[in-house]
Each structure stands twice: as structure tokens, then as C-alpha cells.
Design brief:
Elements (H helix, E strand, L loop, with lengths): L4 E9 L3 H17 L5 E5 L12 E5 L2 H4 L15 E7 L3 E3 L4 H7 L4 E2 L1 E6 L7 H10 L3 E5 L3 E5 L2 H15 L16 H11 L5 E2 L5 E2 L8 E3 L4 E5 L15 E2 L3 E3 L8 H14 L4 H33 L1
Helix pairs in contact: 5-6, 7-8
Length: about 300
Amino acid sequence: MTVVQDRSVLLLATNKQEYLQFALNCADSVRLHNPDLPIFIATNLKVDDCTSRTDIKFLPVPEEIARLYLEAKLYLNDFLQSEETLFIDSDCLCYGDLTPIFEACRENDVTVVGRNIPIEGFWTGDGIKFARETLGINKSIFFNGGFYYIRNTPVAQQIFLKAREISDNYDAYGFHRIQNNWKNDEISFQIALAKYDQRPIPDSGSYMTDLFTDNRPVLNVLTGKRLLRNITHSTDRNRPQYPSAYSPIIIHFGGRNIRSYPYIAQSRLLKLYRNGVPANLSSIVVYFFIHIPYKSYHWLRNTIGNFKKTNG
């Protein structure tokens, strides 16, 4: 494998054309705030419409890997193009300089944003014995697989091989499949990372997070503005390790949030900017044609709901 840069960002877009568009949005957001950082998109999709994108390099993904869906992440080490790689899920957007993430991760071979938890915090009963004696681990790592930091080292290669080995025995081990269909890559990596004593980067909300605590954040991907609230009065939406307000560098819009107002507004900002509309004007257009209608709709719906409750 030829290493061409010290650091780079790797994205993955397979099987559906909309995933490629998500990846392009993510790449654009990375480029805005990291103008000199090489960006690679690994894909099995047609990129004919992207030939003008000289700022992005496309890497071919073999079909036998692409059809693995989430498990394709277990082969990220096959696509490394630099000494240090930050893999970011295509349904993420970047809101700032990625240097602090690289610096926080670089003492590890492979790592994530999360936290170590005792083996008893993830396994119960006979599972504790199974984890120690069969899997050879004494701790678990709780994390969001929105990004993986990977150093191009022999240990990193072993971690990926171990994750694939775990995945090969996924059903025999009795691990839960997502929607009774897909294997969860996070489980395989969780075990492999713990096996090779990789330390997660503390999840304080400053590096990468999702919209769990705040599904209506203040965002502008063009300017890097991002402000999320940690709802302290709700145990269902609170993360005790986060401050009351926080500004992550990467936001993961996974699941239903990729179809929600916050992501739609951000993707429109990026589209306008790609078409040459200045950032300030793009922000004004999105505010009047997306933000105000959305806020007005929800205000009206909440008002009607409260009225019905009061007069019901």
C-alpha cells in the first residue's frame, strides 16, 4: 500500500446513489473547514457526474465488500491512503477544523469517541464468562461508530482482522442483528478494540455526537456555527457527561435525522454554496425558505395541540 499523505479523511458510499450524495455533502463540509486535507470516497457507485470534483479522489470498492452494507466498515483498512485516517460516516457533516480530533486520537492505532465500561456493564450472567474466556476481553467500549480513527500500523491491521473474525461468528455468538437483518459493526469493533487495549477518546460532546440531546440545534455548516443543548431536566434526553451547551466538530445525522429539518437545511446550504452562492446569501435564502416555514409549522402544530388539550 502506497502512503501518499500524513493525514486524510475517508468516506464510504455503497449500493445506493443517495449515499453517494450524502458522502459528497460530508466531503464538502470537510473541505470548507479543512481546505488542505485530502478526502477520499470509497464507492461501488457510478461517479460519472463527479468528474469535475478534482478535490476528491474516488476509490473503487469490490462488490463482495459493498454488499456487506454495515460490515463493509470492517474492511476500511483496505482503503487507507495516509499514515493517519479519519473515517467519517457519510451521514455526518463537519463544522470545524479536524486537527483537534487527529491530535486527541493519535496515541492509538484505532480508536473511537466513547468510553470504557466494565465488562459487567455490557454482559450479564454467562455472558461475562463468555467475554473473558472466549473473546479474551475484560472491558467493553461504548461508542458511536460515526467515525473511526485509524493509524496505518501492523496493530491496526490486526484489529481489523479480529473484527472480521468476530463478525464471521456473529450469529454463533448470539449477537443482535439490526432490524433482524444487518450485523452491527460496532459490536465487532467493540470487542477488537478492547482486545488490543485501544483507549476511546472521552465523549464530552466536543468531537463528534448525534442529535440525541437536541433535535433542533442551531447550525450553519457554511460558517461552522453549531450549538446543541443538553436537556438537563429530562433524563430521557440528557447525557450527564456533556455540558449544558456544546459545539461538536462532527455531527452524526444518522437514522431518521438524515430526513429531518436540520439535515435538509444544511444540505441546501451546501448545494447553494456549490452553485456559487455566497455563504451569507445562502444562509439568508435557507432561513426564509426552510427555517421560517419549518418553525412556523411546528409552532402552529404545538399551538393547536395545546388548545385541544385545554379545551378537550
